Protein 1
Amino acid sequence: MPPKAAIIQPILMAAVMAFLMTALITWLNLGFPPDYLTRWLTAFIIAWPAAAVSAYIAIPIARKMTGRIVTWMEAKGL
């Protein structure tokens, strides 16, 4: 992956995940009150940076674990 893409991809992935998860969790907690959009966007603005930082931490770990799992699966003939 090109260096620029390695920086941009986690930010975009975090945006999509935070967008969907905050919408769902806000709806589950509140239903659709009149101020739903404001509450959801507030949650999204807080969650997106947290998700981006988490993605930078999680992606290398997930990549390493995936490699180990695939290696194990191939050794087992799966």
Note: The first helix runs from residue 3 to 30.
Protein 2
Amino acid sequence: MTTDTAPQHGPHGYSSHKADHLKRLRRIEGQARGLQRMVEEDVYCIDILTQVSASTKALQSFALALLEEHIKHCVAAAVEEGGPTMDDKVAEAMAAVSRLLRT
């Protein structure tokens, strides 16, 4: 598994859907602000928890879409290259899946 954690810039699997992803993230950001407002306004706990659940599901859905694009683009390219690059990208993707499953 690679230990290089420096940000990588350039065309990634999500690049072709960047505008859609940003729109989705802005919607999630709005949900988070809505949660803050609900707490400020002393809204009933269960209603806030319902909104937390919706926000969590929205983030999970975004993460899965991003992971799918990563596998189709970055991992697929590494598989074509083969060797240690392939092993590193597969391990990196599996680590991301593991993190997602822990949440």
Note: The helical segments are 18-40, 45-81, 83-102.
Protein 3
Amino acid sequence: MKGEHIGELEELVLLTVGSLIDDAYAVVILEEIKTNTNRSMDVTAIHSVLRRLEKKGFVSSEMGGASKERGGRRKRFFTLTRAGRNILDESMELRYSLYQKLPKLTFSGLQ
């Protein structure tokens, strides 16, 4: 897994898929990201990221059943894979390691 990289939006989508467990489909993923980050984006961007992540093996998907609320259309549900969890673990370790190297700052007065 070393050498693989993910962008910030890919990382947010992976974290969201993992946290939603069995209810991760594009619209809910989008709503969660908007709620938690105040970012404005559309579902097309989420679909694009999910396709990339699935191609990389970081998520898997399966179709759910059709529902009357959706006019008989089915939802595609996504699940975090072991490889996806590994890349998130590596990303978080790197961020934490770099954060720990920041010098301690002292502030005199408000700025």
Note: The longest helix spans residues 82-100.
Protein 4
Amino acid sequence: MATTFLKKAAKTPESETDNARSVVTEMLATIERGGETAVRDYALSLDKWAGDIVMSPEAIAERTRGIPQAIKDDIAFAAGQVRRFAEAQRASVTDFAIEISPGLTLGQKLVPVNTAGCYVPTGRYAHIASAYMSVATAKASGVQTVVACSAPYRGEGIHPHVLHAMQVAGADIILCLGGVQAIAAMTFGLFTGRKADIIVGPGNKYVAEAKRMLFGKVGIDVFAGPSEVAVIADETADPLIVATDLVGQAEHGHESPAWLITSSRQVADEVARLIPDLIGTLPPTARDAAGAAWRDYGEIVLCDTREEMVRVSDEYACEHLEVHCADLAWWHENLTNYGSLFLGEETNVAFGDKVSGPNHILPTKFAARYSAGLSAHKFLKPLTWQKMTREACRTAAPVSARISRLEGMEAHARTSDVRMAKYAPGANVDLGAPVEV
């Protein structure tokens, strides 16, 4: 088997992280010292926003008043798809109890986190879908308080469509706040008095770095980087559709990788020919982003066999993985590392990003090797519990005592001793040799 790079990326997602790390470190330290005042200062200097941070119902109503009904209907439909899928995910895991041995009952209770912070990016584009992807999923999971944040759009408050999507999805508190300062505010409970237990949602490299650095003080969904797409294509693929889908994701930003993995030299050559022309027809903002992304991060990998294509794809562990090949069931069975899988040319990443139902907040930068995207499960804690009868305790306690003493943990062992003395006085039971040192 052989792999040939017909186009190799000049950069990797790690190429641009050092500057972000130093900037975020300073900002987080400033916010920890200065609290809400520091956050307001950053909102003014970075986003030119001096208005209210916490949006009142009246302010929300005023900001969204002019949205046409057709747009509201589309957002309601898409949010409903996401909510129903998340509800099905929630229903797929349940509380249970099992008497694992006579008198010993163990169980699992699924408890949602109390407060979730949902970050919705607004920069080059107004990410309407990210609002319902995060907020609706959290609410479907049973989260009591959802705090949603998004930056002012062009200095005029949260984009009305994003704001409406947050509201439709069920956000309890909405903050007009973006970037590192938003992540810090949700982590520390600024402006709301409710510290987030988990923060979810996509963002730029500064937002991603803030989440990474604050992880531990707060839970996060995934270690995120720039959006990624890979297309696996054999000789049956339509080069125009493949090229269009690669460009469709490259417009996310200058650092968004787009990869083609193919066994067909003809498909590879035609896709390579088409992509510059497709980028050239885009409007300026998208053309600039997609052009840089394809130039610096785009790759075309030619493989001999479909097994080799699977191996390469699993090494990339791409966020979004499309398969344009014959025998889709084989690919579904054999691929293992991806954020979300799109089988056949009839579906694509844009459908998944906006309206299909599965979440579009997904692992990047190889994290799909060990983690999955945002789901109802991310907001749930499978908490274990146990209880036992005194008869069961008399069975478990001697074993626990002996193992504890083998480990050298005398105080642990004595929690068994005291119970045996109470529940089985006078019993001649081996509790292990007491620890002397």
Note: The mean pLDDT is 95.
